[in-house]
Write a structure and sequence with these properties.
83% of the residues lie in helices and 0% in strands. It contains 13 helices and no strands. The longest helix is centred in the last third of the chain and has 49 residues. The N and C termini lie close together (9 Å).
Length: 287
């Protein structure tokens, strides 16, 4: 008599227990420090080598810069705690800036849009890092600190600051570009600020814990800003367009994966256990 059902049942039960141990944090204790290096930095370095050898197209160098930068960020978070993301989140922008700068240098491109995007995103990420560092260290302007710590005004401020400090400057930047007061490259900063302003406002309403699921919106904001620049300049730069497309697709895929994983993993584990037990039970009855 074939033992295939019994073997399949044991495999399903073992798989379910492995997934359950993962959800309970068993494997996190082992891989919490090394996974960013193995899953992000190493593939990023391999991508760089493959592009250098002309095995992959030049646009893949953008993803290489993003992966290496994100790997370093997540490794630091593994060392010092994921609360570090409150300060290090501008690194998500810097990673894409590094990727674009690699693309510009690798292609020796004369397109100002790629270089402008890289420099603009790099400067923006550094400025946001400084602001985040100052804010989280507790060094506030006196009026803001008083306003934030006082009852109802403080509550309103905690909800509305993304609209006033992030979204509004982004809208103003758009108006300046459309009026030809600023160069088109400023649309990158404006587009990012608009997306991030809306995102931070949603987090303020529903809780910053959603950041663990929706952090790829930081990437989506960059992709949207790049597409806005391409549309405004009617640019035919395939490298910039490809980079924006890859970034948008990557961010959406990660968001969908995060949502599916956190919502359905327990249901999936339960189905595996039930299927495994049924297979084992049916096989035993045949004996």
């Amino acid at each position: 008599m074939s033992n295939k059902p019994l073997s399949m049942g044991i495999i399903l039960i073992a798989t379910a227990f492995v997934l359950l141990l993962g959800k309970l944090g068993f494997f996190t204790l082992i891989g919490s420090l090394l996974w960013p290096l193995l899953l992000l930095v190493v593939p990023g370095v391999l991508l760089y080598l493959l592009v250098s050898n002309r095995t992959l197209p030049d646009a893949a160098i953008v993803l290489s810069g993003v992966l290496v930068t994100y790997g370093v960020i997540f490794f630091i978070c593994g060392l010092f705690g994921w609360g570090s993301l409150r300060i290090l989140w501008p690194g998500f922008i810097f990673g894409f800036a590094a990727g674009l700068y690699l693309l510009h240098g690798f292609q020796r491109s004369r397109h100002n849009s790629v270089r402008t995007a890289a420099v603009g995103l790099g400067v923006l990420s550094l400025l946001l890092f400084l602001v985040s560092l100052v804010y989280n260290a507790g060094i506030y302007l006196f009026v803001f600190s008083q306003f934030a710590q006082s009852g109802l005004p403080g509550t309103l401020w905690s909800l509305l600051w993304p609209l006033l400090l992030v979204l509004l400057p982004g809208v103003l930047l758009h108006l300046f570009v459309f009026n030809r007061t600023l160069p088109a490259g400023a649309l990158i900063l404006g587009g990012i600020l608009v997306v991030y302003g809306v995102f931070f406002f949603i987090l303020s309403l529903f809780g910053w814990g959603l950041l663990t699921l929706l952090w790829p919106v930081f990437l989506l904001g960059i992709a949207a800003a790049l597409y806005e620049l391409i549309w405004f300049e009617r640019s035919r730069d395939t490298g910039l367009r490809t980079a924006a497309l890859i970034l948008a697709a990557l961010s959406l895929l990660i968001i969908v994966f995060n949502l599916l994983f956190h919502v359905s993993v327990y249901l999936f584990i339960a189905l595996l256990l039930v299927a495994g037990v049924l297979l084992v039970f049916l096989q035993r009855r045949r004996w």
